[in-house]
């Protein structure tokens, strides 16, 4: 595997994004909605840097049927708390085609959220199939072809534990 973002670069970017979010959501008690499972490591690092009285909840939406290809979307785990009139921030590890974040955003708006914004750890904006899905906050923009692993990103459920982000190579499969 090839190192893409070091732990220290990641720490710096998340700290910067957390400062912006803390400022923008001061007094709004935002609800952070993580999209499982890839968001877990990013969510934890972001959360401990926020100073805007956040709450958290999680959803599971299937987007990749197998391996690295996008498949049909399906809600697999619903939120536990109501979102009506809440300022919601969707926490995504990666936005690729944009289909997952589109699905989640529509769902939250239907449930009556006061506002819905997106924070992405990595944005693959050149892969976008769904327009209008640009995140308000982004740590890294990535336009490479290799699949990324580590810091929550998996390949067939492996490698989420790595403390930095790497590009997957053939012999990692
Ligand atoms: C990944 C990622 C996003 C989604 C992005 O989830 O966490 O939720 O795909 O892809 P899209 O923009 O093309 O919709 P995945 O289904 O791989 O599950 P995981 O989070 O459990 O790894």
Protein architecture, described:
The strands form 2 sheets. A 6-stranded mixed beta sheet has the order 4-3-2-5-6-7. Strands 1-9-8 form a 3-stranded antiparallel beta sheet. The chain has helices at residues 7-24, 40-47, 99-110, and strands at 2-5, 31-36, 55-66, 69-77, 87-95, 115-123, 137-141, 148-149, 165-167. 22% of the residues lie in helices and 34% in strands. It is α/β, with parallel strands linked by helices and 173 residues long. 1-O-pyrophosphono-5-O-phosphono-alpha-D-ribofuranose is lined by residues 35-38, 62-64, 70, 92-100, 154.
How is this structure best summarized?
With 173 residues, the chain is an alpha/beta fold. 22% of the residues lie in helices and 34% in strands. Bound molecules: 1-O-pyrophosphono-5-O-phosphono-alpha-D-ribofuranose.
Q: What is the makeup of the main sheet?
A: 6 strands, mixed
Bound molecules: 1-O-pyrophosphono-5-O-phosphono-alpha-D-ribofuranose
* Strand line-up in the sheet with most strands: 4-3-2-5-6-7
Count helical runs: 3
Helix and strand sequence: EHEHEEEHEEEE
Strands, count:
9
- Quickly give the structural class: alpha/beta
Approximately how much helix is present in the residues? Answer: 10-25%
Distance between the termini: 10 Å
> Average pLDDT value?
93
Shape: globular
Strand content: 25-35%
Radius of gyration: 15 Å
Q: Which spans of ≥5 residues are poorly predicted at pLDDT below 50?
A: none
């Amino acid at each position: 595997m090839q190192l893409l973002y070091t732990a220290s670069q990641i720490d710096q970017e998340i700290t910067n994004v957390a400062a912006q979010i803390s400022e923008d959501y001061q007094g709004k008690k935002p609800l952070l909605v993580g999209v499982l499972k890839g968001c877990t490591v990013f969510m934890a690092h972001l959360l401990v840097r926020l100073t805007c009285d956040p709450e958290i909840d999680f959803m599971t939406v299937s987007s990749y049927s197998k391996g690295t290809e996008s498949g049909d979307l399906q809600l697999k785990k619903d939120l536990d708390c109501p979102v009506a009139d809440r300022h919601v921030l969707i926490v995504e590890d990666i936005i690729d085609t944009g289909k997952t974040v589109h699905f989640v955003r529509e769902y939250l708006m239907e449930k009556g959220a006061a506002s819905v914004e997106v924070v992405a750890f990595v944005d693959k904006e050149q892969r976008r199939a769904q327009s209008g899905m640009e995140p308000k906050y982004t740590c890294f923009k990535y336009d490479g072809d290799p699949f990324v692993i580590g810091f929550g990103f998996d390949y067939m459920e492996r490698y989420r534990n790595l403390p930095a982000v790497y590009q997957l190579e053939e012999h990692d499969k």
